[in-house]
Amino acid sequence: xxxxxxxxxxxxxxxxxxxxxxxxxxxxxxxxxxxxxxxxxxxxxxxxxxxxxxxxxxxxxxxxxxxxxxxxxxxxxxxxxxxxxxxxxxxxxxxxxxxxxxxxxxxxxxxxxxxxxxxxxxxxxxxxxxxxxxxxxxxxxxxxxxxxxxxxxxxxxxxxxxxxxxxxxxxxxxxxxxxxxxxxxxxxxxxxxxxxxxxxxxxxxxxxxxxxxxxxxxxxxxxxxxxxxxxxxxxxxxxxxxxxxx
Length: 246
Ligand SMILES: Cc1cc2nc3c(=O)[nH]c(=O)nc-3n(C[C@H](O)[C@H](O)[C@H](O)COP(=O)(O)O)c2cc1C
Ligand code: SF4
Ligand code: SF4
What we know:
This protein has two domains: 2-174, Rossmann fold (3-Layer(aba) Sandwich); 192-245, Alpha-Beta Plaits, CATH 3.30.70.20. The chain has eight helices and ten strands. It has helices at 13-27, 46-53, 71-80, 105-114, 136-159, 171-188, 205-209, 233-237, and strands at 2-7, 31-36, 57-63, 88-96, 116-125, 164-165, 193-195, 215-218, 221-224, 243-245. One iron/sulfur cluster binds at residues 210-212, 214-215, 224, 228-234.
């Protein structure tokens, strides 16, 4: 079986899950290509097109941001429109800090628009990326151990074409309100970021790592633009914790 898994990961949780999934799948002799949507923004470059032609099952993995898809992921899905998916099977892996109020239904619709059939959907609880946690990597590893059996189950379900949609519950109804309220706040969030110049060592890591080039530096003065997708990567990975919120 040939699998292509399109993922976005702000702070590494979703990527870690995708890596664990790939290891398990490849033990079962499946071939897994993991594609970081950050590097394929248009969703229609030649590598992606080639993979689409040669894939049996497609995977979509993302963190839930404010009961919604990350903006960069929405844009990637738009870029995939017009691709020839021809009703092949798809699975979705979501990671959350608490609960997935985006649920499986909206993504099912998105996949249907592309010509894909949603067969599997899982929600995995990971550390909450909105908080800077010391030893984030350890917290992530602990969560991965807890989620291991669910990833194993997903692998079996995909291999044997069993349908399993998890993450359905009353919280999905609340998602509409959460999306509206948090969606607005997330759009404006770039105004809250600032760099504490007393701490900053000008290493440039935040500039290079931002998935949407939302950070600029002008003679040691840092500013954030409205392209920010509130992934919280800059906050987590600044080596001296100089990135802060007003
Ligand atoms: C802006 C933002 C909004 C978030 N909204 C939610 C949410 O609605 N529900 C939830 O359970 N977790 C939420 N989280 C937590 C992340 O979904 C979770 O930590 C995820 O595993 C991060 O994955 P990543 O490291 O791949 O980016 C949010 C995180 C961010 C940064
Ligand atoms: S990552 Fe931190 S220390 Fe490095 S340039 Fe950015 S704010 Fe400064
Ligand atoms: S500015 Fe920070 S939070 Fe915003 S997109 Fe870039 S890395 Fe993510």
